[in-house]
Design a protein that fits this description.
3 helices; single chain; flat; 75 residues
Length: 75
Amino acid sequence: MQILTSEVKTKLLRTKVEKEILWGEKECLKYSKKRVVRVFISSTFTDTKTERNYLLKEVFPQVREYCQARGVEFR
């Protein structure tokens, strides 16, 4: 039988809660009134200019439309 320290228990609990949040299994998140999706892309401005412009002009409008149809705000 393995005895877990409080530090290990806390880490395991945090990991379980994080998993539940990521998979949408937390009840408090399922019924949240504010439903927002935010995308953050980090890179130097010039390195990803082509990719960034494609996302802004082609991909994000489609994602925004998809989200709006489901009552979610896309930022």
